[in-house]
Records
---
Amino acid sequence: MRSPIHEYLTELLQSCEVVQGGAPASYIPELAEADPSQFAIGLSAVDGAVYCAGDAEVEFTIQSISKPFVYGFALEDLGPEKVWDAVDVEPSGDAFNELSLEPETGRPMNPMINAGALATHALLLPGGGVDARVERIRSGLSALAGRELEIDEQVYHSEMETAYRNRALANMLRSAGNVDLEPLQLVRGYTRQCAVRVTTRDLAIMAATLSNGGVQPWTGERVFSARVVRQVLTVMTTCGMYDSAGDWLSTVGIPAKSGVGGGIIGVLPGQAGIATFSPPLDTHGNSVRGVGVFERMTEDMGLHLMSVPPPARSVLRDDGEITTADGGRVGIYALQGAIQFAGAEWIARHLEQFPPESPTVAWDLSRTYSVNKVARRLLLEIARGLEDDGRTVVLIDPDGVIADPVIGDGRRLRVVDSLAGIVGEEALRVPAYYTSPSVDTPTPDVTTVE
Ligand SMILES: NC(=O)CC[C@H](N)C(=O)O
């Protein structure tokens, strides 16, 4: 069977080929030579299944797409305070190479514009030289890509020849006391960072590593902590597309970063990493065809982060009551999916308004994928309430999604691996023991709880 996803990407590529306009970056002579017809799309699921269409194996320089990753390396290596002291997280609405510092604090506005990216680069390996910092970055980007990436010396030298703007920025940072590196050394390091060669396939898996909460899907290496990923994605969302960030968030609605090499990455948290490559750029420095692809994908695939997710009520299913061999009655509730605050709130309200009649209440968690911190707390509170009302709550929790279910006063819920652990094998073999079939959970009233 041909993958419908591969077919979709191929069709998307073809339909966006008609998008014309823009020109390869001309301020870096080597980039001006790029073949404007090259075009690729890559998509990686969070488990590392990658789908590509077009010229996905062609290498080009990562350019500004390095910025969110290097920001992540700085957060990992130095911790949030030091990074925060050096660079703010406010969208600037400025072009990527704007000579600007925040008036009140003197910091660059954010790590996605060049001023902030230079300051972020300078944070790495304090006391180390250019080569050490560049190697930290090259090896970190390689860990994200799952293969050894190399620096394009030609693009590096070409950009250095005309890097007057970035030299001005580095001098500005040095004179304002933001960095203590020699400005030219800083520009050298940053320009090498931008000259790391990647393919569209690489970018898709690098983006998917962010979608996957910081763990590279192929190698299993945790490159970023979940907290760092959250910060990186936040800054990508607000600042990643420079002076078109608001427009991008309205039309596409996913955290993204572009580079003047023609690449764009997009990160759909928990779902997929997306990458495009096409050298002609618009006036903001974003790939024209890349923007077109992302706009269409959002429409087709419902990717926009602000699209309202399905309601939480599907987390609870009332599976009726079962009678044990010795006549005991057990009410069974299946808790399903990923339970977060809204799901746990629904369960609490449901059980309050439709209190289980059975003396024993079994929560079947075998289809529960995850329970986050707040949901865990709420569920244990609900269980305690039920127990205080004279019921016994038992968890059917073969995978331990609610590990160590302590409900206070040293009380702990009983945990079994399967329903048989509660009612005995015998009861399960005789379907007639079920006294009521699986029913839809009725909708509880909306009451204001003060
Ligand atoms: N937007 C970009 O990709 C800019 C990166 C480029 N190396 C520069 O600093 O000018």
---
Amino acid sequence: MTTEDFAPAKVNLALHVTGRRADGYHLLDSLVVFAGVGDRLAVTPGPELRLIIDGPMAGALTAEPDNLVLRAARFLGEERVVIRLTKHLPVASGIGGGSADAAAAIRAICRLRGRALPEAALTAPLGADVPVCLIGRPARVQGIGERVEPLSGLPPAHLVLANPGVSLATPAVFGALRRRDGAPLPPLPPLADVADLARYLATCRNDLEDAACALEPVIGEVIGALGDQPGCLLSRMSGSGATCFGLFADRTAATEAAAALRHRQPGWWVEEAAVLS
Ligand SMILES: C[C@](O)(CO)[C@H](O)COP(=O)(O)OP(=O)(O)OC[C@H]1O[C@@H](n2ccc(N)nc2=O)[C@H](O)[C@@H]1O
Ligand SMILES: Nc1ncnc2c1ncn2[C@@H]1O[C@H](COP(=O)(O)OP(=O)(O)OP(=O)(O)O)[C@@H](O)[C@H]1O
């Protein structure tokens, strides 16, 4: 018997850095959604714990013991499964690929074994992004990532994700921050449609964007190229970069924008996807 799960890209539509804890971790206030593009996992009972990685982005990873999928299995005390990870998301790119994989592995193993999801997984022992990835739906995320409040009522929306092929280490970006005392997110008003969402997001920021652009100036180019596309309501970096998103009202505009970007920048990873509701 095989159980399968999907590990969607996590997108921080807004990310405010509101403080820093004594242990160096940063306090965040973030509006997180998931896109209909991601990695796939298949878990099958086997003689020992083993990870096989394939897919278009497999080359960026090895099945090292510190792979987050293996760490997730060990966290559950699981030693007898073979996990196939089909990697579509660029690695170390601000869309939480590793965290989404870990969350998908936890869900799939628990389903295979008929277990409930362990509460402890929600305290972020495998990384700050794992709790929200376990939920996989729109949420406001606070603390260092462990406070997750699911949000309902976000309007349907489409995203174009673009990554210029540079990987950024999350600690390096946090380390390059000039300020760590941002205000929390403004209260979320009722949102009738995606234009309302864009207007709200325009009052927010990604506080990691300037630091990431200082490390990799091409990120500014990506944000500009997305924002120039017809129908793009807002463009911004996700997480600690370098992936950026453009927000679109409809699928046709997003598909055309993605095609235009791929044509102009054949070396970039570009995907169009709906926001998962
Ligand atoms: C920036 C975000 O992508 C926003 O969603 C996440 O907070 C990062 O989540 P993640 O990649 O799962 O992060 P972790 O693996 O827990 O942490 C990697 C490193 O990022 C820094 N880090 C991460 C999260 C956080 N709230 N404060 C931090 O300062 C720390 O240096 C940490 O050692
Ligand atoms: N299954 C995995 N997929 C991707 N990266 C992994 C995985 N397991 C371990 N890693 C390691 O985790 C690090 C972060 O990769 P990931 O793709 O999760 O970053 P990210 O998209 O920047 O995440 P975030 O948005 O949560 O900061 C990389 O250095 C990578 O080597």
---
Amino acid sequence: MADQKIYRASTTAPVNIAVIKYWGKRDPSLNLPTNSSLSVTLSQSDLRTHTTASCSSTFEGPDTLLLNNAPQSLSTARSLACLKSLRALRSELEDAESSLPKLSTYSLRLVSVNNFPTAAGLASSAAGFAALVRAIADLYELQQSPTELSLIARQGSGSACRSLLGGYVAWDHGIRDDGLDSHARLVAPKSHWPDMRALILVVSAAKKGVSSTTGMQTTVQTSSLFQTRTKEVVPKEMAEMEKAIKSKDFATFAKVTMRESNSFHATCLDTDPPIFYLNDVSRAAIKAVEEMNEKAGRTIAAYTFDAGPNAVIYYLEADEDAVLKTFLPILRQKEGWGKTDTKIDGPGPASPQVVEVLEEGVSRVILTSVGEGPISVPEHLIDDEGKTVDT
Ligand SMILES: Nc1ncnc2c1ncn2[C@@H]1O[C@H](COP(=O)(O)OP(=O)(O)OP(=O)(O)O)[C@@H](O)[C@H]1O
Ligand SMILES: C[C@@](O)(CCOP(=O)(O)OP(=O)(O)O)CC(=O)O
């Protein structure tokens, strides 16, 4: 009798927030970057994508993806590239071992849920494509390492390659035309520096104006600052950042993180037409962090911003009190403090203007920390009859 089994594998995957930003492609179709980048993988206890990949000879029609309960196209060049590479690896296994079920020939059904806003500058594409690749690789029982799989996730979304690993992760730009040397690399596992924390001030959970993909293309074409950033600034910052992480030197980590975010946003402003990702609320967050560092007499926190106004503030657990005493007094009423004692009092930011803008502009907070890479989970979003489970 023909194989009617429903094969399934599920994973969760993390978001990562870069401290050295990827911005610019040297090859847009393969998603090869103009510069290397480096990120901190964030804990899946707070932000995660949960994806189930399933296939069966009984599934009819094309591959499908249900994302947050809505059908999502898998016929984009990026998704097709990921699926093609994964199928090719499975097919190699099947050719080598004829008793294996021919999963590579079956239609795929994918169901995925992000526990945070999608396409709102919270790196959903990173967690999303990392989860998609990891779940299908598990379904196909591929033996490739996370670094090898990162080559595939990169084709879905550049930053996704860094979400295949936990801790502190670099993405080396590589020099080969085929991109085989453009993959994620572990700089240090979470266990090396586990006390890294991140406070995210969610400024806008709405879909952003200029997508990263479009924005970086325009920057490459029009910004003259971009050339210096790629050739001179980033290589130096990468070296300094790796050293800071290896020696757990937070002050240097923080200074490079802030300089890097500002260099990236300066390049956006130097783009024609200019791209504005930061807004008044972002600038108030920058001011609050600067005031806090000045008051502490050392650098205890670092801000960074991706392609949107949300602030990510990195700090060490030992300095949590100072960070909370700055932000809690004005953001106490907002959602997201979790188990934190929201009664903690403190002076808050010194400048009344900063207080007013943050109070009004921050919609919620996320308190999280450095975390692990994708985790295989037994909870499937597709049942053993191939039906989507209610989420
Ligand atoms: N769980 C998921 N599974 C598969 N694809 C996903 C998933 N989540 C997001 N995506 C893809 O990523 C796209 C959103 O990417 P986009 O870069 O616009 O936003 P973002 O990643 O949230 O923001 P940013 O990259 O600026 O941090 C979605 O439209 C979808 O195609
Ligand atoms: C500002 C960034 O977050 C840009 C991320 O860009 P994407 O990875 O979303 O771009 P595509 O490769 O076109 O999908 C910086 C970073 O994460 O390094």
